[in-house]
Amino acid sequence: MPRFVIVMLAFVAGWVDAGSFVGLDHVMAAHITGNLVILAGAIATGLQDTDLLKIAILPIFFVAVMLMTVVHDRFIARHDDPARHIRGLLVIESVLIAGTGILGVMTTLNGWTLDFWLALLVVTPVTFGMALQNTLHRLYPIVGPATTVMTGNITQFFIDRTRHLAGRTSRSLINDMPKNNTLLPILIFAFGIGCVLGAVTTMKLGNGSFLVPAILVMASAPFARKPPEK
Length: 230
Known about the structure:
Number of strands: 0
Order of helices and strands: HHHHHHHH
Largest sheet: none
Number of helices: 8
């Protein structure tokens, strides 16, 4: 995969996330976990009508990933050419993002008020596009590091730089992570519950609430052992 394509995807994701956050009631079309955090904060401080879009965007993203996977498996992946598959997915993503752009122009030119339903209509195509970009990285690791969320990339960068300064080699171990399909939904649910409880507890008790996760991590540490060899 040419490097400039990966850079472009990262640029697009950043643009989309910032644009949707500023223009569409603080939702993030590319960073779905960011919406969970913002929603959790809204729950802690009291939900408003403007928070409805943050709730609606979650199932839209989930459904979009499922639909994009079906489209890929049934239509795009029929040809034995991964590069062609990727190109096809990027074309679809481009069309979806353009859909939001067109709707945005129509809204501005007609002076329409961006209420919940209109905002939902405008944000849905680009959310599908970002769901597709997230899906693309999972289906084709050859595309490279994730372009929709930078935290993992930043972490790996500083791991590599630290080891380089120490005269050691470094490589990403992301592909060595165990694959467990039954674990993923549990992790997603746990993350969501953690967001809500963390936001509410901090709202009620202040920053002392950070002692709770600190204690949980410390209590878990002794159990973090290498599994026995099979």
